[in-house]
Amino acid sequence: MSEADAVHLAVQAMLVTFKIVAPILAVSLAVGLIISMFQSVTQIQEFTLTFVPKLAAVSLVLLFAGHWMLDELISFVDMLFQQVPSLLAG
Question: Fewer C-beta neighbours within 10 Å, C or N terminus of the chain?
Answer without folding.
Answer: C
